[in-house]
Design a protein that fits this description.
about 180 residues, four-stranded mixed beta sheet, alpha/beta, 2 helices, single chain
Length: about 180
Amino acid sequence: MTSSDPTRRRILRLTGAALAGGAVAGCSAAPGESSDAGGDGGDGSADEATPTPTADSGGDGGSGGEWTQASTVEMTDQLAYEPKRIQVSAGTTVTFENTGNIGHTVTAYEDGIPDGATYFASGGFESQSAASDGYSNGQEGNVPGGESYEHTFETTGTYEYYCIPHELNGMVGYVKVV
């Protein structure tokens, strides 16, 4: 979370978020908010199977809310992972699809994965600092619009991940492996 120029980056991120938000005003939840709290329950896209929310058992480090059983997460131009919280069985491969035009990353917080779990980040990095450095030096790990990243979750527990360029906009997601 450290940066050599946090003020400039924050201003650029907030400006980008404001521009993207203004283009789709009234069409979706604000960045960082879950769209499953009411309304029609989503962005209108159809999944292969209807997601099934499950009750949160608590103790997940700020990831309270409902969990959606799904193996695909969309990365959107609204600077959000949709759904924000998914639940999968151990051994499931999750696909992170960039459905918009803005590039995103999928980067695990090293202290936000279960003990013994394999670290994951788009770009194949083996640590959070390597992923951050790679992105800063040429946008390595960036998943462009229309492309995807996959990771197989083997270890049970809760994983927290984020998008490097949009973390300050609240682009954070969770995977609960049962």
